[in-house]
Amino acid sequence: MVFAAKMLGTAERGVRVRLLLDDIFTTVDDIDLAMLNDHPNIEVRVFNPISRKGIYAFNYLGNFSLANRRMHNKAFIVDNQLAVVGGRNIAEEYFQLEKSGEFLDFDMLSAGAIVKDVSAQFDTYWNHQLAVPIQALVSEKDRQKRIDAADSLRSEMAEAGETIYSEAINTPVLKQLAALEIPPYTASARLLTDSPEKLLEQVAVDQQIAVNEIRDVLRAAESEMMIITPYFIPRKKGIELVRELRARGIRITILTNSLATNNHTSVHSAYASYRKDLLKAGVELWEARVDAAKRTNADGVAKGEFLTLHTKGVLIDSAPLVPRRAMN
């Protein structure tokens, strides 16, 4: 509700909004997405949608080889001037709007020439044949439902007010950003993107852009690497790479989810089968504690929150990072 309302509000200021959403694990109804799309300044497309006929789960499992071809990109681009990229999904729990737990994530706010590359990546996926306009998935018979949904959304937001966003924009870090008190870190940047065509065709190993580039970067390590990832399934080739790096004396530290913090039990089960191999290879393996997100107030009373690690990052041959102001 919160994101939909903000999207509507932005569109009503005359801003063009495009939303490209993968279909898997999307809990928003097609009616609500179509309601947003009805606004003249909003366009919504769904990437590789599963058939809406019959039972959704059967449609997914019955054509798994195609249905499991997903878009996992995350990018928020504003006026081709700023881009936020990272691992965060669009759902309330990822933004601390749902209080039963806390997702620990990482975002990067970027400016400069790299933003054009992020925009180009978005357009590549937006214009791909797997990106289906939401109006193709709904019937005109549902138009009144969409009108009612828009009225309901505006009514709910009028009652809810701006409490959540008022709290967010008054956090210390955003106040510092607004006051230009946080200097930017200037560096060369490069965007790695796989073509969406790999979702339709068998791609040769030498054409797997992201995985090959990342492997080359890891092999170039000189002393150590620290890996943070919520889901870690190295498979046979990954274990071979780990052993190769360890044989050269590269220190490897990995932080990932425990069974208690992982929001995908099946993924943890697959990862668990590799733990012994990783430890035998000399990897320093850490798993997140479920109570790591507890907060303590002034009275010393802990507030219980469960943690899910959702951060993805690799730090290679670490050195102190000293922020530098952008050159004029």
Notable traits:
single chain, 328 residues, alpha/beta, Endonuclease, Chain A, 2 domains, four-stranded mixed β-sheet, three-stranded mixed β-sheet, 12 helices, 14 strands, globular, disordered C terminus
What does it look like?
This protein has two domains: 2-178, Endonuclease, Chain A, CATH 3.30.870; 204-316, Endonuclease, Chain A (2-Layer Sandwich). Helix 10 (235-247) links the parallel strand 8 (224-228) and strand 9. It is built from twelve helices and 14 strands. Residues 296-303 and 320-328 have low confidence and may be disordered. The strands form five sheets. A four-stranded mixed beta sheet has the order 10-9-8-14. 34% of the residues lie in helices and 18% in strands. It has 328 residues and is of the alpha/beta class.
Can you describe this structure in just a few lines?
The protein has 328 residues and is an alpha/beta fold.
